[in-house]
Design brief:
Order of helices and strands of chain A: HHHEEHH
Strand order of the largest sheet of chain A: 1-2
CATH topology of the largest domain in chain A: Arc Repressor Mutant, subunit A
Largest sheet of chain A: 2 strands, antiparallel
Helix content of chain A: 55-70%
Distance between the termini of chain A: 18 Å
Shape of chain A: elongated
Strand content of chain A: 5-15%
Largest interface: A-B, 37 and 37 residues
Oligomer: homotetramer
Radius of gyration of chain A: 17 Å
CATH class of the largest domain in chain A: Mainly Alpha
CATH superfamily of the largest domain in chain A: Winged helix-like DNA-binding domain superfamily/Winged helix DNA-binding domain
Number of helices of chain A: 5
DNA sequence: GTGGTCTAGACCACC
DNA sequence: GTGGTCTAGACCACG
């Protein structure tokens, strides 16, 4: 499990962690029943304050993704996968709609938008495969 | 010129105004040389604090989109159109790439992403034309 | 609006605040649209760290009870009352069931339990009216 | 002697054991002079860390409910019954008062509270008898 | 070792 | 002035 934090994301650090954990659960990288890194451990890895991690984990518990096991740590809930997959898709759709809406409203032609979209996909795929392989 | 402010956008109000003015210039809705509403006027229209409008207009001046004319008000710069068009496209592209990157990294298949994208475009086109016409 | 914090409650301070705000909304003491004391103000009143208040308010936002108004403060959501009333009743019922279940399971006779319950009600009513009047 | 541990109780495991032993003594299920299961035995039965059982037994000794017999184990004190009965009743009363106080303070009408209470008793009696018989 | 809570104090953006 | 975020460091209960 490796998380990447981007301080310039605009999104709060704890929120980036929440999102990445949910995505990891949705994509199977983090399986139900598995242990998530301890608060202190992840804080050390990301060189972030433990409180920030704590806050992220707390929200993940409130969202039913993690469950605490007294004195052991935090485990991925067995019921979380479906919700995470659904949420991920809903989130992507929502953000796509927002971008598309603003672009169209701002006078970008739909066909130009499709071109830009394809360019994005290709770029990300290149970057992703290049980075992964 | 009508702007729409969404308090729940997450984006700051003054930023929404800046963006919408630039989009309006890019799409020709706001032509070079035209006058932009006064701070007080727009603040009244949007029921927003005048300071907020002031801040948006300052940013637009700093970005070279508006220029002050002594005793008259603020006019759209004649040189601003090209920059606004470029910026709009760059902005859309940047946001698209971000969404696409996160989706792919989160395990969404490219084809699923295309489906979601097309759904967004159709939805926005429907909503947009319905709302406008 | 006056909140009372009991450090020996066992329940976390921020949780006591959350519960009291919800109860206040449920009972109409805190009306929809009203402003809630600012983070710093309430922290000063209760001589508690602002972060603790902040955390309580954040959870109340997550629960849809409060909504932030940029630069103004936090207001009680207009849709929150029904949910708060229902939650209050559900919570009371849940806790009653828990106490009753443990008592019965622990060998307390139902009639003795009723006596204890009536004694509690009378005591609280006395205390409440005495305190209020 | 069978104890039931509920990890989601909120109450610490060792505390659940302490309470259940006291209740058992109060209701006569566990008679004075009887032996209580050894730390290891009970830990195995409940699949709980032996340290946790140890802690519960220590607390019970401190409360004068159990007494150690060299080389034999822990026995229920002959003087413990009265204290356990009194403590059980006091505990139930205390918790009832707390729930009632919060409910009334939160705006629940006393008569509504009585209805909720009776509903709880009936539900628990049903569940209890159904489960026991 | 684990998570949970709290304090103290700082910085930011927004209105 | 407002809320939002983060750091630093402390203490606690639990296993």
């Amino acid at each position: 499990m490796i998380f990447r934090i981007d301080a310039d994301d605009g999104l709060a650090i704890y929120d980036q962690i929440v999102r990445q954990v949910k995505y990891a659960v949705a994509s199977g990288t983090l399986a139900p029943g598995e242990w998530i890194p301890s608060v202190r451990e992840l804080a050390r890895q990301l060189t972030v304050n433990p409180n920030t991690i704590q806050r992220a984990y707390q929200q993940l518990q409130a969202d039913g993704v993690l469950e605490p096991v007294r004195g052991r740590g935090l485990a991925v809930c067995r019921t979380a996968v479906r919700a995470c997959v659904a949420e991920r898709q809903a989130l992507v759709l929502e953000r796509l709609e927002q971008v598309v809406a603003e672009a169209v409203q701002g006078g970008v032609a739909p066909d130009d938008l499709r071109t830009l979209f394809e360019r994005s996909v290709r770029k990300v795929m290149r970057g992703g495969t290049a980075e992964a392989g």
